[in-house]
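Build the 3D complex.
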Amino acid sequence: MAVLTTKDFDERLKLPISDRSSLVITPPPSKDAFTEDSIDLRLGTHFLMPQIPPEPFIDPGATESAQNYLQLHAPLGGYFVLPAHQTVLGSTLEYIKLPFDVAGEILPKSSLARTFMMIETAPWVHPNYRGCLTLEIANASNTAILLYPGMPIGQLVLMGTSNDKCQNEEKQEPIQLSGSYIGSVYPEPPSLKQPQEMLSKIGINKYRRPGFGWVNNNKLRDEFEKARKALNPNENIAVQAIIQILSEQGCLPADSPALSVFK
Amino acid sequence: MATLQDQLRQDAASLQKFVTSVSDHCERRSGTAAYLEPSERLFSYIMKLAESTRSYLTRSLDLQLDLQNLLGLRKDVRILRAGWRFMHRFVKPALDADTLRLPSSLVLGLTARFREIPGFSDTEFVICHTDEFNYLNITLSKLKKQANYISESVGGPPFPDKLGLIGIPYSQASSIFMNCLIPHEMGHHVFGELHLVRTFQILIEKELIGRLGESKPQIVECLAYWAEEIFCDLFAVRLVGFCFCLAFVELYDVSMILDENSAYSPGRSVGLTEFTDYPPDLFRLRQQVSVLKQDRWWPHVEEIDSHYVRTLEAAGKLTEQDFKMPNLFNIDPGIILAAFFAIVPKISDKLDEITEGLKIETDEWQKNDQDISLYLQNGIVPSSLRSGGLTDDFIHPKPVSLLNASYKFYLQGLNLLISNIDGAKVDNKEDRVKWAKKVEMWTAKAIEDVMLMTGGFS
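Done.
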């Protein structure tokens, strides 16, 4: 895996976008933003400020994640104040399309890092990614920091991968784009999976949920199914209504099998 | 019993409380909200006017006035309150339209385009929210008149020059395509600034006298209003091209005139061919098509595979005989319509005169349309086309090209994008909504990028 250099950037930027090896960065950074082995990226204009959640914790998949953020916009020419010890989701000004055989890593600008500001805790960018990169910005210092949209904030290092699968396919055939955050222009809130979905993959069917104790959705589903079959249609409607009320009142976990069995 | 001076002190205090409550909204606007510069100018003006009003009230009450002057001051207080009640209407809708609740980049791009019109190079627009599902030009002359009346009475600042006010439906803040209707409202601004109402009233009066032997003010007013609406439509098409017509068809559901074979069906056009207090949608579209033809958009538009375009095609083929009006004025409606139809070419002439020197963007769009479409199809923001590598050799398509190419892509190319997305299906409504929204976001981002790259923020 070799780090791409200025010459590689130049060659790939010149390729037609339908070419899988092409690199797109827009708005294009100025020439001095391209160093020998990285590209300086600038801060975008939209931010998501975490709010105090309704529950005293973030429970993956249990809450609507977008509701946990305050959306903010600092137009070009304006600024955003990041208080001490606070975090915010931002994004790069640049929209990026990575080639099929290149992965990337975004790193903080060293001068900014010395103000104790971090910009990224999930820095890896997969091949074929397209979008503005979401930045998890944290001000670890004791003073507030002003963020000016358009200021250099990070540097993108690109690395070639040996993507044999794609190498062998017809080059001009469109690539199927995949991933949770394709095409984002603004910072996006996390799309977290339900615990059941994540844990069952490794054979854990029973787990604890705050407020509900031990949950075994597989076992519960079987029991609900059995109960449902014993109901006549009118009883079934009544149970559905009760399940609905319990769900709306937050008395059932969001991934409770009751919701799918009695829908 | 309270003296007149006491009553006046009470009334002045009450007015000051009201004025302050209005200006406080501007002064203490949310720290988390950002506004475009013209909105900031409006808020700053309102705060200064409020301060002048307060100072005036203090000064006046400090004076030893005789009965006559006290009565005069009481009248002033009443008139000032009426003026501030009028101002009150605009503050919240403007405050609601912060940059998160506006298609900010589109507004900047459209304003830049508008400023290319000779004589309007320093016009700015304040965008407000309205709760109506319609785009509105807020009659600036009334607001300006009220503001300047207050200003003259209290010795305050004059209303900011070269400022237009436009209302957009609050729910359409993030839509790029629907907001292609904004240029129509910009047309109203031009119409007002150039006092074209009077120009057309004179022409209409002449036509009516020629046909009826007399001119009736009620008819003149109605026809002048129709002329204004048609002018604004034509102005919008001249400014931004066919994207305006497509948004018009979409907003007003005009495509319902088509039958199952996408052919024009008169039976489905009830209400769309009748002049009432408004010119009918199909007449408006017919006139819009004439500008598309004049500005050389039409041969390209015709090729777009969309029922919106088939609607435009059908409207373009209608003749004057296809339009009717009810007997609104106890005069043969045929005569009134004939008088109006005689004015219509003069509306086009006026448009040509006002926009003389404005570059029509057909060629620029045509050069970039395919590339923009290819970028969108590949999920890429189309702000820098045909890259020259590390050099500055890029093409940054103008906002007009971006809007037209993106709208066209949305109508006939969305399937190509969706079929590039793993797991998405062209026949799934949710997927269509999701990726149509993305196309609008990429277009908005592209306009912002282009404004940045071409000095729009300097």
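The first strand of chain A starts at residue 24 and ends at 26.
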